[in-house]
Amino acid sequence: MYWIREVDGHDDEVADTLTDLHRLTFFDGAPIPEFELGHWWLGFHQMIPIAFAGMVPSTRAHNSGYFCRVGVLKKHCGNALQLRLMRAVESRARRNGWSSVVSDTTDNPASANNFIRAGYRLYQPSYPWGYPNTLYWRKSIR
Description:
GO molecular function: acyltransferase activity, transferring groups other than amino-acyl groups
Organism: Bradyrhizobium sediminis
Protein name: GNAT family N-acetyltransferase
Number of helices: 3
InterPro entries: Acyl_CoA_acyltransferase, GNAT_dom
Domain N-acetyltransferase: 2-142
């Protein structure tokens, strides 16, 4: 029913799809990422893109990927798509030779619970990059 595929953010059509999904899931709550950087995935229902995720090399944690975005259209929430996208991100991070994946959430209990379900642990980075109420997540993947 659902499937996930790593995609090329340099491809204009893929970047347009990622942009559309970002706008539909984040509205104006976050800037649109540079899709030509890092690794990106699309989640599909039948042949229709309904979710996305991205990871870039972390600039804050040594030898780590930064899980920079994940969005699932509301109609498809509750089908473990964020967890499946997290597994895809972690698999790519392992193939890249990274030792961990880091991320953050701010005022998003559903995503925070998914990080817990996926085995991420809260941590305090040396140089926090978010808001005072941001939660920071890390998972060792080795």
